[in-house]
């Protein structure tokens, strides 16, 4: 395997991505390309290359490097922030595209002569496949606790994993590189459902933002919880530090 085909793992502001050196170096004068040429790659504790930038917006940077096209969701409202990221990474072609176009409610509106293949929005156009409707359920199991001062000392929730359930291809289209399929690998069945995918991060609000960007709406939610400070005989356990509560929550999102 050549160096360009080497697989690398990235930690971009706490969001994890997997790609190749060749993809990251697609623009020769970019900061990412220089990072590998000069071998200046800071690592996190898991030996992933660490980049202290906006992890969510980096998905569009990576997509652009892969496809040489800018693909944005409808109602995209962070063009200025995306341009800031493009300038930081010294992606001259992406900067040029963002400078030459305006994005209004997710639609690319050309202010200068712009070749159609250089900028694509996800707005439906003739000849393009319409966004698929469907349902995705996001669930998580976590804990929260009351400290010694009771409700006056509530601890923040701790999420162990964010689960994703739904049609496999729909889940992939929505969550992209942030989706972990290791617990339910593809066995050649193209049209199937899963309840075993989970996200590579534990930021619940980020998962919600991703679904909203893809025009999903929250239609239902359910939760359950149990006090972990009692044993099976309903006897209080001695816990001088805190009383922990275990809980599981599910959120149903629909695009129709």
TrEMBL record:
It holds the Pfam family BTB_2. One of its GO terms (cellular component) is postsynaptic membrane. GO terms for biological process: protein homooligomerization. CDD domains: H1_KCTD12-like (cd22204). The keyword Cell membrane applies. Keywords: Cell membrane, Cell projection, Membrane, Phosphoprotein, Postsynaptic cell membrane, Synapse. InterPro entries: BTB/POZ_dom, H1_KCTD8_12_16, SKP1/BTB/POZ_sf, T1-type_BTB. Residues 6-106 form the BTB domain. The keyword Phosphoprotein applies. Auxiliary subunit of GABA-B receptors that determine the pharmacology and kinetics of the receptor response. Increases agonist potency and markedly alter the G-protein signaling of the receptors by accelerating onset and promoting desensitization. This is BTB domain-containing protein. It comes from Brachionus calyciflorus.
């Amino acid at each position: 395997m050549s160096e360009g085909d080497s697989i690398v793992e990235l930690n971009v502001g706490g969001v994890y991505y997997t790609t190749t050196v060749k993809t990251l170096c697609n623009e020769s004068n970019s900061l990412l390309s220089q990072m590998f040429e000069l071998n200046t790659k800071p690592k996190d504790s898991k030996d992933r290359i660490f980049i202290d930038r906006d992890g969510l917006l980096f998905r569009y940077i990576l997509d652009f490097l892969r496809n040489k096209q800018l693909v944005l969701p409808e109602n995209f409202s962070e063009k200025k922030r995306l341009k800031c990221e493009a300038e930081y990474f010294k992606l001259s072609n992406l900067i040029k595209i963002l400078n030459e176009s305006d994005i209004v409610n997710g639609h690319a509106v050309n202010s200068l002569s712009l070749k159609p293949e250089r900028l694509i929005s996800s707005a439906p156009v003739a000849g393009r496949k319409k966004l698929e409707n469907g349902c995705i359920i996001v669930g998580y199991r976590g804990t929260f606790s009351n400290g010694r001062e009771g409700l006056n000392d509530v601890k923040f929730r701790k999420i162990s994993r964010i689960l994703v359930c739904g049609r496999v291809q729909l889940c992939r289209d929505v969550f992209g590189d942030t989706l972990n399929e290791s617990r339910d690998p593809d066995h050649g069945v193209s049209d199937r459902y899963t309840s075993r995918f989970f996200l590579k991060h534990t930021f619940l609000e980020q998962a919600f933002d991703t679904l909203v960007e893809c025009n999903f709406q929250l239609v239902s939610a359910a939760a359950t919880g149990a006090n972990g400070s009692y044993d099976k005989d309903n006897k209080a356990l001695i816990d001088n530090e805190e009383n922990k509560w275990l809980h599981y929550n599910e959120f149903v999102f629909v695009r129709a």
